[in-house]
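Posting for a labmate who doesn't have an account.
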Amino acid sequence: MLTAPLPPRRAFQALLLSSVLALAGCAGSDDKAAALPEAATAQLAVLETTDLHANVLGYDYFKLAEDKSVGFERTATLIRQARADFPNALLIDNGDTIQGTALADYQALVSPVACTDKLATYKAMDAIGYDAGTLGNHEFNYGLPYLAQVTGARFNVDGMPAVSAQARCKGPDFPLALANVTSRKDGNTLYPPYVMIDKKITGTDKDGKPFESTVKVAVIGFTPPGILAWDKRWLDGKVDVQGVVETAGKYVPMARAAGADLVIAASHGGFDSSAYSPTMENANYHLAKVAGIDAILMGHSHSEFPNAACNTTSCNASGVDKVKGTLHDVPAVMPSYWGKAIGVISFSLEVKNGKWSIARDKTQVSLRKTLLDSATRSYVAADTAVSAAVQVEHASAIDYVKTPIGQSDFAMSTYFADVGDVSAIQIVNAAQADYVARYVAANLPAYASLPVLSVSAPFKSGFAGGSDFTDVKAGNIAINNAADLYLYPNTVYAVKVTGAGIKAWLEKAAERFNRIDPTLTTEQALVSGFPGYNFDVFTSADLSYEIDVSQPAGSRIRNLLYKGAAIDAAAEFIVATNNYRGSGGGGFPGLNGSNVIYASPDANRDVLIDYIKARRNLTLATDGATRSWRFTQIATAGPVTFKSASGKLGVAQALGLGNVSVLRDDDGSGKGLGVYAIDLAR
């Protein structure tokens, strides 16, 4: 666009005005520099929560009882205490925030939260006040429309209305950042890749006088690339996920160019020292090598870091200081899960050349836990502001989970699932198999001749201590019991596999166990670090197999029989499972989504509830005692041990597990676990 030249007088006035403005700008710059006196110091603490999983209150919706070991209402007390200790503090959430309890499922699936209402978890968090957050993998469990709604976002993705037609719903009061998930429709990130926080702080000049300043902190968010497989039903064809390292290489320089004094990576993952790939689930060991990152907030692995007692390969890898809490000299923290702790990275800042910089040798990383004394099981007090914020939603969730659906003449538990008990697994397998068989018969005639089998796992197997087991008493069964039997909001998938594929599946599941040396006289732990939720178990009278724990991983399945004969490696079967496993979750061979014949929209838990309603009365003989697998009998010179909740030997005896005994009632962890022995020769 052309404009007429200014008259000489006006041109001079304009030139004079611009000169004045330029001088004013220079003066402003001088003032800003003066506001940062050389050699001044300040302390800035970054506080982290992660993997809250909608544990807002210290309450177990499965047992309908208080559980002081979990809950944001106690985390909030830690946050208030840390803010008192560190007046200059930022609070950042690292994701896996909105899913994980019956309260979360109730608001997402049963009585969906209205667009005009805030999610209970975010209500609680806003009662304390956060500066920023990111998203974990479980944020995507309920689908993109729900995620957009409860986070107050609008997504330009296929399958959703045009952005202009989407309502702006009520989300949290703090901004969310996510850099490595982009829409296939326009290539843009679903959320801002980073948020810039202008944090007002108080510092001290070299003479000891206090002064106020502003530190610009960029928070960049990352989620595990595995979401494309784990929630394929919601995300396939709609979004792409980029590798954490590649994405950081793009946005860290941008944040620096935008003026960031500090760059914090809120990366929902753990750290794995094996070779990097863009699909890596726990990539923070490699993320720490990206230039320009000042700290990493971790999660996802439900672990603690720093942790001097950690003896994993990654904890002892080059560049990891598990005591100080650094990865390649970058401060990193992971504060457990379910609100059990907060992470604290305390930066010592100093002014150099007119800018804030980090005194790395003075930076400290620590955890603060709600558990005060493991011997007395005492915890910090709950913050009443949190419980007050969610009382209505909490009460509604309790009323919902009390709804009766059936009866059982036997107890269903996972206390001894690692040594053969299927009382809490068989009913899940039966419900899945029934659902898939009926669907195939009605809708998939090409597969109607194939046998339908089913697998499930002991989802609660003691990872968090003696209370972390499924335990459904005999008698009335309510919805909360079904939620205890099936912990996750998965959907039913049916996959077509061969007999060889079933053997490979079982070999992977058998990694749950360590290799046992029969000649050792010292104690040997039976169970490895392989997650219990990946220990898939069949419970079919038609299928039987042994697990030989004296053999190396990959060579443990023996005597795999189908209807009494060695299974035909080429024979075809349909196996009912869940979307996580069917899409590749857990890294099981041959399960990558390519052999899924039915991706159901129905949740495994809802299928289980409907099955129990239809059966109405469950019996041990029919529904809880069909054990497909055994350990191969081997005599060992020393005890083979495993852990379960203390004081449960009677449960094992009632199940007929006569080869189980108690070695120690208390394993010394303070988590309510005992040490048991299993005689593998019996």
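Reply:
Got it, the structure tokens are right above this. DSSP finds 18 helices and 38 strands in the chain.
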